[in-house]
Amino acid sequence: MSTLSxxxxxxxxxxxxxxxxxxxxxRPGALIRSDRPRPVSVEAVFGHGITLVADLRLAxxxxxxxxxxxxHPAYRNLPVLRPEDTVLEEMADSLPAIYRAIxxxxxxxxxxxxxxxxxxxxxxxxxxxxxxxxxxxLIVALSLSLAGVADEDIAADYALTAGALRHEAQFAAxxxxxxxxxxxxxxxxxxxxxxxxxxxxxAEPYLRGAGLGQDEITLLKARLIDP
Length: 227
Known about the structure:
Blueprint (H helix, E strand, L loop, with lengths): L1 E2 L9 E2 L10 E2 L4 E4 L7 H6 L2 E6 L3 H6 L10 E3 L17 H11 L1 H12 L5 E5 L6 H12 L4 H14 L1 H5 L4 H7 L4 H15 L2 H8 L3 H11 E2 L1
Parallel strand pairs: 4-7, 5-6, 5-7
Antiparallel strand pairs: 1-2, 2-4, 3-8
């Protein structure tokens, strides 16, 4: 796993190299996470071999802040929030509870995003939302868990976002925002993965129940794992 110095992006990482199932590793270049790319990011994004840009923001967010990648054939808007869930902070009182709400309420939308990753053309998949923290964190966590990456490694990657966005956190508008940002820790993601396991049986049963087909699950695993 490596941090990417993409112009305009503060929170970009290639998840390649993380230990996966069966002694394999996540394939370098297969899954990249970031905050929303800016116009100066475009050359770096496509120079990384990206064939799918999965923009997890709501359609209204994309209209207000259009992606510089939107005209490219690789771009897809794949929101994982319901249209009525416009403010994450209003969904629950803590980050683990917000993440549980996203998983519970938006399961079909999550499955649609995961299906797009599974069936993307050969090459890299970039997953992003606004800051690359919450929605991106969940889709990346589900992908890595499906690939057999250990909870502790998934949580450690998630926690790196706190350092990457520390400048943004200093300008959080409310005390509540600052408190929630302080919960961007490994413990938050470990709690989320434990919830997935306790309520749904884990990432794979959750995704199957959400509508992801077995063929897509097999494709996604093959895409991510370098034996």
